[in-house]
Specification:
RNA-binding; Exosome complex component RRP45; Ribosomal Protein S5, domain 2; 4-stranded antiparallel beta sheet; ExoRNase_PH_dom2_sf; nucleus; Rrp45; alpha+beta; 6-stranded mixed beta sheet; disordered C terminus
């Protein structure tokens, strides 16, 4: 049985009242979307898209297969959405949910049914062999608006993917490796984008890019799939709120503006990635790990041997008697080691061992200190306090004679803990 999301009634009421006052809990405007980031992996077709706290990772792969009998000159594309417990505690591994099925249908309508990918360009031999594309969408963190984040990640991975070069000689089909021939990019006609809206107050108030809490408090959702050319690719409505014609037109206008911005962002990120790959710079997730912050990737220090300076200086010290002093500085016997820990960070020498809170044990383990039993104790009858005076001659060092001295030896020689935690004791 699929787990259900449990939310507090007071939290839902707070979100509804905030939307009625034209405010949102994260400070955004009603039509404002969260910050979007697109990161490309080192391998082709791997894209991580973040929309606020929502994270979706997509990977595209291909293989040769038989075409369908109805379309012998067209390839195929399959979309698989995985909702793992890592994204949200309500998801269960190996079990499909209503949200997963809904998200898969939305992506298929937006990408495959809108003919985003040129399927005829995937044909190798008509009626015999075609390329079959597979888009694996992994939801890494669920914080609302999975449709838009997953669509951006899937479309970006299709643009970033490269298929192998193929040579056909009669009935022989040869697939070349990357070392032999450069891979070929896919042919895409347009970039469809899914834009999500949440409905409140019987559809009278609408917010864009809702979070998970706002989706649970809303009366329904509308997902509009459009591209930058103002073409509607799909529309998905969930909930029981009726919509007017004017509201649908308003949704399309807002979705087109959002699609233009997302399309430009995807093209810009693709150009930057191509420039980094052509110049052999760091690409993929490894580039994002190179930061100068604390607790970032540790850079191993590099040892640089600097030759000792050969300096001879003459210092003139002026005193009351005007005495001249001349000193010659002899070079050090050992070479100076300069350690480079990172950008603009260096150190001279490795330093010694840490002396932080160390215990100085000057007495050997086989020797203990004891106090003689015949200690001179002086008592004052008029005072209730006990005064004990110990002199230097009262402390003697002797070898172990009894079990009591052995326990005293353990306490003094081992510091603040007993040598035998079970039988030594205190």
């Amino acid at each position: 049985m699929v787990k259900e999301v449990i939310t507090a009634k007071c939290e839902q009421d707070f979100i509804i009242e905030s939307v009625k006052a034209d405010k949102r809990i994260d400070g955004r405007e009603l039509n404002e979307s969260r910050v979007m980031h697109i990161t490309f992996g080192k391998t082709r077709g791997c894209v991580l898209c973040t929309l606020g706290n929502t994270r979706v990772l997509s990977q595209v792969s291909c293989e040769m297969s038989m075409p369908k009998a109805a379309h012998p000159t067209e390839g195929s594309i399959h979309i698989n959405v995985e909702l793992s417990p890592m994204a949200s505690p309500v998801f269960e591994a190996g079990r499909s949910s209503d949200l997963g099925i809904e998200l898969t249908r939305v992506l298929e309508k937006c990408i495959r049914d809108s003919h985003c990918v040129d399927l005829e360009a995937l044909c190798i031999v008509a009626g015999e062999k075609v390329w079959s594309l597979r888009v694996d969408v992994h939801v890494m963190n669920h914080d609302g608006n999975l449709a838009e984040c997953a669509a951006i990640s899937a479309v970006s991975s299709l643009h970033h993917f490269r298929r192998p070069e193929v040579t056909v000689a009669g009935a022989d089909v040869t697939v070349h490796s990357v070392e032999e021939h450069d891979p070929i990019p896919l042919s895409l006609h347009h970039i469809p984008v899914c834009v999500t809206f949440a409905l409140f107050n019987s559809g009278q108030q609408v917010i864009a890019d809702p979070t998970e809490a706002e989706e649970l408090a809303s009366e329904g959702r509308v997902v509009v799939g459009v591209n930058a050319h103002q073409e509607i690719c799909m529309m998905h409505i969930s909930g029981c709120t009726p919509l007017q014609k004017e509201q649908v037109q308003r949704f399309v206008e807002l979705a087109v503006n959002r699609a233009k911005y997302v399309t430009e962002s995807i093209k810009t990120n693709l150009q930057h990635d191509e420039q980094n790959r052509s110049s052999k710079n760091l690409v993929g997730f490894a580039k994002d790990l190179q930061t100068d912050k604390i607790l970032a990737v540790q850079i191993r220090p590099q040892r640089v041997f600097v030759p000792p300076p050969q300096v001879s200086t003459e210092e003139t010290v002026s005193t009351d008697k005007e005495v001249e002093m001349t000193d010659e500085i002899s070079p050090p016997e050992k070479e100076v080691k300069v350690l480079l820990y990172g950008p603009k960070t260096a150190g001279i020498g490795e330093g010694g061992a840490s002396q932080w809170e160390t215990v100085d044990l000057s007495i050997e383990d086989n020797i203990t200190t004891s106090v003689e039993k015949n200690i001179d104790l002086s008592y004052d009858d008029e005072s209730e306090e006990e005064v004990v005076t110990l002199g230097a001659e009262d402390l003697q060092i002797e070898s172990r004679e009894s079990d009591k001295n052995d326990k005293a030896k353990q306490r003094l020689s081992r510091g603040w803990y007993a040598k035998d935690a079970f039988f030594g004791g205190w």
